[in-house]
């Protein structure tokens, strides 16, 4: 595993940031809430947080923004992930793109590979245990912090908020996520879709 991570790190400078598309998913719940707050000295902070419902947010990140964001009610399954790649991600890919995913079982499904290759893109897997090499992890961290601050309490509110917030990642911010993970960060030269 150590060798795989070292090999990935050594190959990162050769990757074209304009073709990289990093895919991942994250869980969120309607009961997410801030873990700290303020109240008068000597008093305990009390805040109601209802029982939550879990959702999964699936998206891809390019050096210039997010691609194909989807909110799934509940956990992501292999069939749901394949359907999402076929319907949302593959149409957003360009010939020559390199789709990078971690080693989650649903990412290894044959339907995922077929849909990506049919779009003219290549597929690569991150080394095991390498979230530090996936820029979308940083974007998800920020998205979850915003979601906690907004305190959305219904599935629909979470979906709406995640949709508008994921679109709010500016190109410079996305390039910063790439840079912090060790990827080259030249301004993408490809025209947007």
UniProtKB/TrEMBL annotation:
- Residue ranges of every copy of the Tc1-like transposase DDE domain listed in the record: 20-150
**Top-rank taxon:** Bacteria
Q: Which InterPro entries match?
A: RNaseH_sf (IPR036397), Tc1-like_DDE_dom (IPR038717)
Pfam families per record: DDE_3 (PF13358)
GO molecular function: any one?
A: nucleic acid binding
* Protein name from the UniProt record: IS630 family transposase
Species, as recorded: Limnoglobus roseus
């Amino acid at each position: 595993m150590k060798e795989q991570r070292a090999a990935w790190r050594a190959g990162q400078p050769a990757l074209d940031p304009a073709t990289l598309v990093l895919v991942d998913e994250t869980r969120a719940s309607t009961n997410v809430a801030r873990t700290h707050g303020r109240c008068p000295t000597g008093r305990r902070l009390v805040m109601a947080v209802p029982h939550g419902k879990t959702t999964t947010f699936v998206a891809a990140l390019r050096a210039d923004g997010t691609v194909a964001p989807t909110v799934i009610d509940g956990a992501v399954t292999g069939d749901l992930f394949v359907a999402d790649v076929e319907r949302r991600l593959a149409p957003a890919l360009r010939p020559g793109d390199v789709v990078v995913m971690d080693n989650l079982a649903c990412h290894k499904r044959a339907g995922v590979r077929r849909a990506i290759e049919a779009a003219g893109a290549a597929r690569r897997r991150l080394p095991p245990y390498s979230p530090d090499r996936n820029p979308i992890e940083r974007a998800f961290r920020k998205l979850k912090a915003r979601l906690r601050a907004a305190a959305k309490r219904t599935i629909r509110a979470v979906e709406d908020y995640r949709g508008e917030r994921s679109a709010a990642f500016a190109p410079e911010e996305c390039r910063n996520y790439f840079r912090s993970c060790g990827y080259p960060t030249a301004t993408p030269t490809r025209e947007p879709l």
